C-alpha cells in the first residue's frame, strides 16, 4: 500500500476554526493525481472549504455542499465566491447537474465521534454526524453516495478520506465496511492510500513519536470510480 507520511498542516490551515482540519496539501495531492485542469471538483461535505481552495489553486472548477450555515459562510469567504451551497448531501442533485462532476474529493463525518470527544454539535436534523447506531450510519452513507454517484461522469473518480472507528471499547473495520457499501452502490474500487498523520500530530502538539503512536488513528484515502458501463447496483 502506498503511504503518505509527509503531509503537514501549514500556517493557513492552522488559522481555520473547524473541528476536523485537513491540510490543504492532502487535497491538493488528491486533486492533482485524479483530475486535470478544467475538471469539475465537488466536495459534498465541504466544511471550511479546504478541498475547494486546493481545486481553485490548481485551475479546476469547483462546487461544495455544506449543511452548516456557519461553515458555508467561512468557505465562501475563503474562496471569494458563492460556490459552496448550503444544503443536504441527500439532495445533492437539486444543486448540481447530473453527470457533470469529474472528481469528488471529500471526508464525511467519522460517525458521531466528534460529539463524544469535543462536545461538537452538528447542525441539521439529517446530519450524518448525529447518528449513534453504527449500521444506521453506514446506511446513511450509502444513501448519500448513491445520490452523489448520479452527479458523476462515467469514469469519474470519488476519493474519500476515512478511518476505522472505535466506540465503547470496540473497534470497527469501517474502511472495509464503507468500501463494501460503495461497491454495492455500483462504484468500482481503484486503490487505497494510507495517510499517516503521526508527524503532523508531533508537529502540532510537540509530542513524542511514542505519544503519536498511541494517540493517532491511521486514516485512509479510498479511491473509487464510477464505471463506464452501467452496473446493477444494490438499492
Verbal overview:
With 235 residues, the chain is of the alpha/beta class. The protein has a single domain (2-225), classed as Vaccinia Virus protein VP39 (Rossmann fold). Helix content is 35%, strand content 23%. The protein has 9 helices and 10 strands. It has helices at 11-15, 24-34, 50-57, 69-79, 113-117, 134-149, 174-185, 198-205, 209-215, and strands at residues 2-4, 40-43, 61-66, 84-86, 101-106, 152-163, 166-167, 170-171, 188-195, 219-225. The strands form 2 sheets. Strands 1-9-10-6-5-2-3-4 form an 8-stranded mixed β-sheet, with helices on both faces. A two-stranded antiparallel sheet has the order 7-8. Helix 2 packs across helix 3 and helix 6 (134-149) runs parallel beside helix 7. The chain starts with a strand and ends in a 10-residue tail after the last strand. The mean pLDDT is 85.
**Major pleated sheet:** 8 strands, mixed
How far apart, in Å, are the first and last alpha carbons?
31 Å
Spatial strand sequence of the major β-sheet: 1-9-10-6-5-2-3-4
Provide the CATH superfamily: Vaccinia Virus protein VP39
List the helices and strands in order.
EHHEHEHEEHHEEEHEHHE
Shape: globular
Q: What is the name of the CATH class?
A: Alpha Beta
- What would CATH call the architecture? 3-Layer(aba) Sandwich
How many helices? The count is 9
Looking at the structure, the CATH topology is: Rossmann fold
Question: Structural class of the secondary elements?
Answer: alpha/beta
Overall helicity: 25-40%
Q: How many β-strand stretches? A: 10
How big a fraction of the residues is strand? 15-25%
| Low-confidence region ranges | none
Task: Let me know the average pLDDT.
Answer: 85
Q: What is Rg?
A: 17 Å
Compute the number of structural domains. 1
Amino acid at each position: 500500500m502506498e503511504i503518505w507520511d509527509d503531509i503537514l498542516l501549514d500556517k493557513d490551515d492552522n488559522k481555520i476554526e473547524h473541528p476536523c482540519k485537513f491540510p490543504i496539501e492532502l487535497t491538493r495531492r488528491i486533486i492533482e493525481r485524479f483530475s486535470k485542469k478544467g475538471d469539475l471538483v465537488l466536495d459534498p461535505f465541504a466544511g471550511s472549504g479546504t478541498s475547494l481552495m486546493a481545486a481553485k489553486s490548481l485551475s479546476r472548477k469547483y462546487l461544495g455542499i455544506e449543511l452548516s450555515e456557519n461553515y458555508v459562510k467561512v468557505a465562501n469567504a475563503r474562496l471569494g465566491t458563492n460556490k459552496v451551497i448550503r444544503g443536504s448531501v441527500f439532495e445533492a442533485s437539486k444543486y448540481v447537474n447530473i453527470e457533470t462532476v469529474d472528481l469528488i474529493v471529500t471526508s464525511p463525518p467519522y460517525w458521531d465521534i466528534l460529539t463524544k470527544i469535543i462536545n461538537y454539535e452538528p447542525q441539521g436534523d439529517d446530519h450524518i454526524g448525529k447518528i449513534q447506531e453504527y449500521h444506521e450510519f453506514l446506511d446513511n452513507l450509502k444513501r448519500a453516495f448513491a445520490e452523489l454517484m448520479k452527479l458523476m461522469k462515467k469514469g469519474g473518480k470519488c476519493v474519500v478520506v476515512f478511518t476505522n472507528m472505535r466506540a465503547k471499547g470496540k473497534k470497527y473495520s469501517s474502511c472495509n465496511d464503507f468500501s463494501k457499501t460503495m461497491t454495492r452502490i455500483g462504484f468500482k474500487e481503484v486503490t487505497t492510500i494510507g495517510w499517516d498523520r503521526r508527524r503532523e500530530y508531533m508537529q502540532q502538539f510537540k509530542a513524542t513519536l511514542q505519544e503519536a503512536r498511541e494517540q493517532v488513528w491511521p486514516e485512509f484515502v479510498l479511491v473509487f470510480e464510477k464505471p463506464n458501463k452501467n452496473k446493477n447496483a444494490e438499492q
